[in-house]
Amino acid sequence: MKIRINNREQEISDQASLIEVVRLVRSTTADDPMLKAIRQRTGDDHISYLVNGKVVAPQEYETTPVKEGDEVRWIHPAFGG
Amino acid sequence: MPNAKDAIDARYSRHCRLPELGRGGQERLLSSRILIVGCGALGAAIASLAARAGVGSLRIVDRDFVDLGNLQRQALFDEDDVAERLPKAEAARRKLARINSGIAIEAIVADAGPDNIEEFIRDVDLVLDGTDNAETRYVINDACLKRGIPWIYGGVVGVRGLVMSIMPAAGPCFRCLYPEPPAPGNMPTCDTLGVLATVPSLVAALQTTEALKILTGATPAPGVLTVDPWQMQFQAIDLKRRDDCPACVRREYAFLDQGRTSRALRLCGRDMVQISPPEPTHIDLEALQRTLAAAGRVSNNGYLLEFMADDCELVVFRDGRVLVKRISDLSVARAIYARYLGA
Predict the structure, then answer these.
(1) Which of A23, B30, B146, B240 is a Cys-bridge partner for B56, taking CB atoms 3.0 to 4.6 Å apart?
(2) HSE on the CB side for B179, CA within 13 Å?
(3) Chain A environment of B294 (Cβ under 8 Å)
(4) CATH code of residue A68
């Protein structure tokens, strides 16, 4: 099925849950210098995921279904100033 | 002697000519009061832009001193400020007074937190976020929702940043985006990951633009804007209120009213401050060792981690307690804690 991830159309398996999108984002951003450094140092990338505008807590990634046409966005962390 | 209207026309002519603002908009800015919390890279750039734009009254709160490492990106500060070890709020006030003598500027050297934030926001129209850590933003979010004051979150790290205007009546709020705060030491900071000099200026310009819009009655941008000038990618993201948001839906202000913030304690007879997390936590010392290695010397014996940088010495325990050595001032200790542990 087709969904949009950060405004780009992507094909993912039917009956997918958000965790599959998270894995896809992790692999497509594996070479991103900033995310790579954050993952290496902290063991996590601290990305926030939104499905159709609502933030999903990490413990709910596996149980949050993703449907055809859904809009998934991910946001990098930014707590510095 | 020019009258007040001529003076406005002369100084703010470019704003007065703008259809979006006009002289009416400029007069509204001149009668506005804002609070800037934190005067590092974001806060100093915001303060400079807001002062030049003619926001009539600026209150700036910051807990830190100007350091050489700040000059790479923090507008308003110079080498004389470093040599004098001036507090950032005061250094900013002195520069801003020379930029615009027609506005009121109040500098407060303090650690904004649950015990004093309501006093700082009591009479302002809007709050701008110039902080460098997660915890203070949760406190600002609670206080602004409680008092019905709009605030503008801005955050940076690495080559990226975020901007979000939070309107208390409509939502969504900061906790709709970040429901729970990160564990201390678990989030990259500008001091551990680095930050590109231009990113805070960009984010501050966007935050200040949102402020000028709100203060003159225009509608702020909805949702979140993410910026990545390194790849020249900008994204406007629709963010909806979380149905169960404790802050903007249930109106429970856990960070402001219920003590969900860390505690700093001066250890008697020792030049040392202990900072404890709000609730028991578990720190992955090995991961923290990798993070801090970029910023200084680190050793980890499995029970505690010792970190030495030019400006400080830290001991971090697995339960989240941190000792800031060679420091007796609580605000300075908190500033160092935020710098390296990001909480």
Answers:
(1) B30
(2) 19
(3) 41
(4) 3.10.20.30
Residues B118-151: tens digit of each pLDDT? 999 999 999 999 999 999 999 999 999 999 999 9
Cross-chain Cβ contact A46/B131 below 8 Å: no
Outline which parts of chain B fall under CATH 3.40.50.720.
32-237
Active site amino acids of B: 190
Residue B175 φ/ψ region, left for φ over 0, alpha for ψ in the -120 to 50 degree band, beta for the rest? alpha
| A81, part of any domain | no
Q: What are the residue ranges of CATH 3.30.310.10 in chain B?
A: 263-341
A79 lies within 8 A of chain B by CB: yes
How many independent structural domains does chain A possess? 1
Task: Give the residue from chain A lying closest to B188, CA to CA.
Answer: A38
Q: Which residues of chain A are within 8 Å of residue B137 when distances are taken between CB atoms?
A: 79
Instruction: Enumerate residues 196 to 215 of chain B having a beta carbon within 8 A of any beta carbon in chain A.
Output: 200
- pTM comes to 0.91
Closest CA to B162 of B252, B263, B239: B239
Classified as helix, coil or strand, A39 is helix
Task: Note whether B187 contacts A73, CB cutoff 8 Å.
Answer: no
Helix axis angle, B198-215 relative to B22-30, nearest 10°? Answer: 100
> CB under 8 Å to B72, separation ≥6 — which residues?
B197
In terms of CA atoms, which chain A residue is nearest residue B180? A57
Whether chain B has a CB inside 8 Å of the CB on A28: the answer is: no
Place of tokens 């470019």: B14
Residue A46: which domain range?
2-75
Q: Is the separation of the CB atoms in B192 and B340 below 8 Å?
A: yes
Domain membership of residue A39 (yes or no) is yes
| Residues of chain B neighbouring A38 (CB-CB closer than 8 A) | 158, 188, 193
The pLDDT value recorded for residue B9 is 85
Kindly state whether residue A80 falls inside one of the protein's structural domains. Answer: no
Give, in words, the CATH class of B263-341.
alpha beta
Residue-by-residue DSSP string for B275-291: EE-SS-----HHHHHHH
User: For A21-39, what is the mean pLDDT?
Assistant: 94
Q: Do the domain assignments include residue A11?
A: yes
**Per-residue pLDDT tens over the stretch B58-117:** 999 998 889 898 999 998 999 999 999 899 999 999 999 999 999 999 999 988 999 999
The complex's ipTM works out to 0.93
